[in-house]
Structures are given as structure tokens and as C-alpha cells.
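Researcher: We plan to redesign the surface later, but first we want a full-length starting point. C-alpha cells attached.
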């Protein structure tokens, strides 16, 4: 039997990079709510007492206050302790958001057919190894991080603070998941919290509840392996938008084109084409054309039709039938946005615990 171990990680909404992603997504949604045709490319940097907003925006929306949105987002995540350098009321915000370049605007919207907002290549992937059509390692890593955050917010674990990372290793045999072998949890906590209390919660509550049928007593577990984790978030580490692209997608199980999602409106094919490629890959698997499917799409800036489309089924199905099926979809930016309803303010909810595998998102339906 062909056996191998595969590991994926997730991070909580309090991770410095995810703080930045959620601020960017919140600003994007605010503009789309008032003008669905807004063009937004918002980048964020957080460190210590500083938040920097930068990027380009073209919109008819008025009354948007990015600085207030940033503070509200930080507060929602849970960074409210005045004793910490990074807190919602105490951070200094520098706003460097400007107008979208005229040449880019002409290429995207100044013609009869909307062109792609940038050149590049995007991938979509699906596998029938889970009901969500996602690889098991990243699905479980997200679940651990999400439930850890839920317990923090509902007061079940009073010692918890917002920053956390999870990691899950799965053993595969003949390309099917067989068992979870290892779990690593690093979770920020209040000063003075006992590490044994944290380990007991993870071992006896979090893992059995979140891993479900994949839970077994023999899983090797590491909790805060470096020791105390009282100082975290942007107080300890710099966060930047778009640095968790593998966490956001398939946990390394499928290839990635390199483009980030957060803070970008759907005219940027980095985002919309990656979502649509996932949508089509799901249809390939659901129709039984393959057990695993990966699509690659590429674009040139200002051109509506994709430059190329590649479909890979990894020997798990009818590759030619899958390619013909995928070729029947319309991958032009405006059509993808219309098909999936991408001009709505839906992007905050994508930021944390994966952009894929969530039943409520349109590309998962």
C-alpha cells in the first residue's frame, strides 16, 4: 500500500496575519454594501501599537471610515486589553488608501466586456475524501482553531487569548485518509495560566469534540510546545495581509497560483477565478467524473477570456470527460461574479478558517 503522512495548519482570527486579513475584508465589504461595483485592493499591516492601511480604491460609496472599521474589527476579534500594546482603542492607524490607477481601471471596466483585473494563474481543487470535498488535514485543523475561538468567546476557557495556531497530521494509505497521527496546538493565554490546565482542555475537550470519528487515544499531542504563550498577536509579531494563502485554501494538498484573497474585490481574478475554479472542481467530483480534481486557469490583465484551462484528475477518473465538462463553464470575470453572486458584501465571513469547505458560501453550493 502507498502510505504517507500529510500535515496542514490553521490559525485563529487573532493571529497577526488574520487580524490584517479581517480588517481588509471588513473594509471591502463596507464599500461593496454601498456600491457593488467598487474596486478595492486593501492591504493592512499590524505591529505593536500601529496599524497601516494601504492600497487602491475606486467607488461611488460615500461615508466609509476605514479607521473606524479597523478599530471595530480589532475589538470584535478580542484585542481589548488596555495593558497590551495592541488593543482596539490604543492603536495608531495610518491611512494610506488611495485611488485605483487609471490604466488599471480602463483595463477592467473601461470597455464593453470586463477584463481580468490582473494577469496570473489560479487553482481550484476538490476531493471526495470528506463530505465537504476538502482534504481532511486542513478541514480538521480549521475545525480545531474555530472551536478554540468559540470557547474563548463564550467564556468556556477564561484563560484563552485571541492568538492561536493548530496543526493536524493524517496518515494516508492508497491516497485515502486512514487516521490522525499528530496534533499540535499553540494557543495564547492570560499570564499565569497553568500549562497543564490548557493541555487538559485540549486533550479531554477540544480534540474529542472537534475530531469526531477521527479521534482516538493514541494521537500524539503537543500543546504550547515552546512553553508559555502569554504575549501574542500583533503585540508580539508583525501581521500582513495575504500571508496565509495555504491556510486559506487547501492546506498544501493542492497547488496554489500565489495570489492572496483578502481585501480584493471580485474584479481581481486572484479571488474570483480561484473561487470559480473550486466551484467547477466540486462539480467534477460530485458528478463522479473523478475522485479528485484540480483546475488551473490563467489570465492576462484587461482580457476577459482566460488564456488557458487545465484539468487534472490524478488518475482517479475520466480526465478527458472532466476537461470537456469544465470547458463548458464561462470563466469570464463578469460572468463568474454573476454566477456566484460575488458583488455582495460576503467577504468578512471567508477570512477565517478557510475560504473553502463552508456550506454557506456560494462557490460551495
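Model: Full-length starting sequence:
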Amino acid at each position: 500500500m502507498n502510505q504517507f503522512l500529510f500535515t496542514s495548519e490553521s490559525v485563529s482570527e487573532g493571529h497577526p496575519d488574520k487580524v490584517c486579513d479581517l480588517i481588509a475584508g471588513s473594509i471591502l465589504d463596507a464599500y461593496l454594501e454601498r456600491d457593488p461595483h467598487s474596486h478595492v485592493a486593501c492591504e493592512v499591516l499590524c505591529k505593536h501599537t500601529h496599524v497601516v492601511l494601504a492600497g487602491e480604491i475606486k467607488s461611488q460609496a460615500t461615508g466609509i471610515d476605514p479607521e473606524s472599521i479597523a478599530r471595530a474589527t480589532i475589538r470584535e476579534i478580542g484585542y481589548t486589553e488596555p495593558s497590551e500594546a495592541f488593543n482596539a482603542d490604543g492603536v495608531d492607524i495610518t491611512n494610506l488608501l488611495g485611488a485605483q490607477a487609471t490604466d488599471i481601471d480602463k483595463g477592467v471596466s473601461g470597455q464593453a466586456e470586463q477584463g481580468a483585473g490582473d494577469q496570473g494563474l489560479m487553482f481550484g481543487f476538490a476531493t471526495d475524501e470528506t463530505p465537504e470535498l476538502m482534504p481532511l488535514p486542513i478541514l480538521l485543523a480549521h475545525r480545531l482553531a474555530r472551536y478554540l475561538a468559540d470557547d474563548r468567546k463564550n467564556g468556556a476557557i477564561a484563560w484563552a487569548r485571541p492568538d492561536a495556531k493548530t496543526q493536524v497530521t493524517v496518515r494516508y494509505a492508497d491516497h485515502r485518509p486512514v487516521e490522525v497521527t499528530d496534533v499540535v496546538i499553540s494557543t495564547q493565554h492570560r499570564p499565569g495560566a497553568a500549562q497543564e490546565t490548557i493541555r487538559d482542555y485540549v486533550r479531554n475537550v477540544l480534540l474529542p469534540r472537534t475530531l469526531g470519528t477521527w479521534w482516538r487515544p493514541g494521537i500524539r499531542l503537543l500543546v504550547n510546545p515552546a512553553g508559555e504563550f502569554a504575549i501574542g498577536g500583533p503585540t508580539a509579531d508583525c501581521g500582513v495581509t495575504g500571508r496565509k494563502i495555504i491556510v486559506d485554501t487547501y492546506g498544501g494538498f493542492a497547488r496554489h497560483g500565489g495570489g492572496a484573497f483578502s481585501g480584493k474585490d471580485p474584479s481581481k481574478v486572484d479571488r474570483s477565478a480561484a473561487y470559480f475554479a473550486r466551484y467547477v472542481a466540486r462539480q467534477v467530483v460530485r458528478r463522479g467524473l473523478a475522485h479528485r480534481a484540480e483546475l488551473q486557469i490563467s489570465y492576462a490583465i484587461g482580457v476577459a477570456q482566460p488564456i488557458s484551462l487545465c484539468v487534472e484528475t490524478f488518475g482517479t477518473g475520466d480526465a478527458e470527460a472532466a476537461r470537456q465538462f469544465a470547458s463548458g463553464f464561462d470563466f469570464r470575470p463578469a460572468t463568474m461574479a454573476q454566477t456566484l453572486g460575488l458583488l455582495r458584501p460576503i467577504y468578512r465571513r471567508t477570512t477565517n478558517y478557510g475560504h473553502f469547505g463552508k456550506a454557506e458560501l456560494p462557490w460551495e453550493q
